[in-house]
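Review form for a predicted model. The reviewer records the input and the model, then writes brief findings.
Reviewer: anonymous (R2)
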Amino acid sequence: MEGDWQDRAFHHHIATLIDALDGPDFWTRLTRVIERFVAFDNWVALVFVRDRAPLVCAESPTPDGAVDLLFRAYLDGMYQLDPFYINACERPRAGLVTLAEVAPDNFRITDYYQRYFKSNIIGDEVQFNLPFEIGRTLIFSLGARRHYAERDIAQFALFAPWVVALMRQRLAYESLAQSAIDSALAGRDATPEQEALSEAGFASRFEAVTQQSGRTPLTAREIEVVRLSLSGFSTRAIAERLDISFETVRAHKKHIYAKLGVSSQSELFALFYEPMGAVGSIGSIGHAGG
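Model under review:
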């Protein structure tokens, strides 16, 4: 049976993508094919690295060509609260991943959501994931100002096999030795302390900040409670995840607040994620990736 012109055009675009696998515009061409079927507003290709800042493969340009400060704040450390990053590190799998699948129960009331995700992506996000070695996942993220409809998600799922297959072939042409710090701090001066915090894993970051501020260090379990809490897990969800009682989680939170001299989630977020820059003052629309 002869396909219609749309089918022919689609196959032609796939062919051009295969031809572009080793070229600098591969990711841009990939977005152009997908946006013919589903509208989105920003995109980014990253490598998630366990306990390290993501590596940037390619990113959508800002409308005015300026440095996207909000995306830089993400690379500086807020990626640690990104539900997609957490999921890729804890449960790596190839294929389509949606925000609805990975977002914790309290995600939309977190400071991370209100001060980064809502300003940067606004509505929704999906990612095509490809784990390729222990602790590393190549991701292609598409963010939208609106919520993706059921039909959009179905279209992404239909595309996932060939998108992931092309990502697997693309890996050979990515320069993954690039330091994420160079990307994150491009265009602004950074102190050695800022660079160290950007590259630090979650526990290392917390230890460094508490040492600098002269506060009482947190235990490993307390750090895990903070990470889950700031990521959007409710007290009950944290208890289930860590296999401890609801009251034990509440006790941990009480000790954490007392040790750090804070009285709210917002103060806790500010303590660990605002030393890198004035996150709260950033409001540009930028890239997906969290």
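Findings: The chain has 14 helices and five strands.
Further findings: The first strand starts at residue 42 and ends at 49.
Recommendation: see findings above.
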